[in-house]
Amino acid sequence: xxxxxxxxxxxxxxxxxxxxxxxxxxxxxxxxxxxxxxxxxxxxxxxxxxxxxxxxxxxxxxxxxxxxxxxxxxxxxxxxxxxxxxxxxxxxxxxxxxxxxxxxxxxxxxxxxxxxxxxxxxxxxxxxxxxxxxxxxxxxxxxxxxxxxxxxxxxxxxxxxxxxxxxxxxxxxxxxxxxxxxxxxxxxxxxxxxxxxxxxxxxxxxxxxxxxxxxxxxxxxxxxxxxxxxxxxxxxxxxxxxxxxxxxxxxxxxxxxxxxxxxxxxxxxxxxxxxxxxxxxxxxxxxxxxxxxxxxxxxxxxxxxxxxxxxxxxxxxxxxxxxxxxxxxxxxxxxxxxxxxxxxxxxxxxxxxxxxxxxxxxxxxxxxxx
Length: 370
Known about the structure:
Blueprint: E1 2-6, H1 7-17, E2 32-38, E3 41-47, E4 51-58, E5 62-63, E6 65-70, H2 71-80, E7 85-91, E8 94-99, E9 102-107, E10 125-129, H3 130-138, E11 156-162, E12 165-171, E13 175-182, E14 189-194, H4 195-204, E15 211-216, E16 220-225, E17 228-233, H5 242-245, E18 252-257, H6 258-268, E19 280-285, E20 289-296, E21 299-306, E22 308-311, E23 314-318, H7 320-328, E24 334-339, E25 346-350, E26 356-360
Antiparallel strand pairs: 1-5, 1-7, 2-3, 2-6, 3-4, 4-17, 7-8, 8-9, 10-15, 11-12, 11-14, 12-13, 13-26, 15-16, 16-17, 18-22, 18-24, 19-20, 19-23, 20-21, 24-25, 25-26
Helix pairs in contact: 1-2, 6-7
């Protein structure tokens, strides 16, 4: 096997494909990148058994063949090479890497040991803007549960297609994020994509807005991202019934500036630390005032903000970080905060439309009344 290409091109490919390479595994081959040359096209594949990345590169100087090259040392070598043409060739299971007067020889792994990437076996596909996909993931992934050791379904996001609308949902037991967009697909579908895979997809999405394709099957999702194919194994299990968790009615509604409330909460939470996680209290006073306060052993803080309040006066406490995380992911200048009591979730929605819904659970404090 042999191919020749520019260092910058090869390094970019290795950095991206390495995202799907296992750092440490009992299967040595998945710590490497599967490189195949056929008809002047080089195919680079990484697959850690959970998700994989594949890309193709056309070259002029090549010889057909295949090998698995250990990803870390391969990438480290290319990083240190001069900015010039790099030749990669193999003899048996030895890999020769040459650039000007610099050369390396490293052991490769038999391509027979590399697991075969799953192939698409589904007619269910979505054509969608890469910018929309980026926004949908960014606006929800903050609410994905920590995977820990149990691989809970809530360590992923629900991607549900219903009546031509794609809903992306994340929930971690303290908050929930829902993002919706119309899509060009007739059938209904429901899958759960791991949060870790979605974080990697964000890094591979094209910098300019492009139309991409997503293929959905029962076990895998395939993202065709311009120059790369990203595939992810799906999580199995029952995702929470998110639609029934979203309150329909409210007794208190607050129209408020997103930038204003974030700034106010950041000021008040100066007295909150990792060790002293006291909640922030909001006192909502119709018709146009909301007061925030916090009390910890570090000190006391108070701040007030103008807003438009309709409905009843209310006192409610919450985790400032969870609230700010949700507000930072609103793509509007103003939002509506809705709730019914100190013990019911705070619902955050846009002033117009229903493109997103965020829920933040309140924190019960001693003077809360049921």
